[in-house]
Amino acid sequence: MKTLRDIEIGKTAKVLKIHGEGKVKRRIMDMGITKGTEIYVRKVAPLGDPVEITVRGYELSLRKEDADILEME
Predict the structure, then answer these.
(1) Intra-chain end-to-end CA distance of the chain, in Å
(2) How many CB atoms neighbour CB 73 within 10 A?
(3) What is the DSSP string of the chain?
(4) Which residues of 3-39 are buried (b: 16+ CB within 10 A; e: fewer)?
(5) Global pTM?
(6) Within 10 Å of residue 70's Cβ, how many Cβ atoms?
(7) 2.30.30.100, 3.40.50.10860, 3.90.76.10, 2.30.30.90: which CATH number matches 4-72?
(8) What would the pLDDT profile of 32-63 be if each residue is shown by its tens digit?
């Protein structure tokens, strides 16, 4: 399974599935990250946390735990 953390900086990928449950999954979806959404990886902090992305025209930072639940194409 390829997750958001596996996507290289400067690449775009599409969300295949969100593997979280309950509040975590709901929070991710409320940020506009849903199945089929394209995500552009802008930056990754030196220790891998957080990951800065562009989704639906706005910039967002995700913790690596949240990035791990996003299965990517």
Answers:
(1) 9
(2) 12
(3) --BGGGSPTT-EEEEEEE---HHHHHHHHHTT--TT-EEEEEEE-TTS-SEEEEETTEEEEE-HHHHHTEEE-
(4) ebbebeeeeebebeebebeeeeeeebeebebeeebeb
(5) 0.88
(6) 25
(7) 2.30.30.90
(8) 999 999 999 999 998 878 999 999 999 999 99
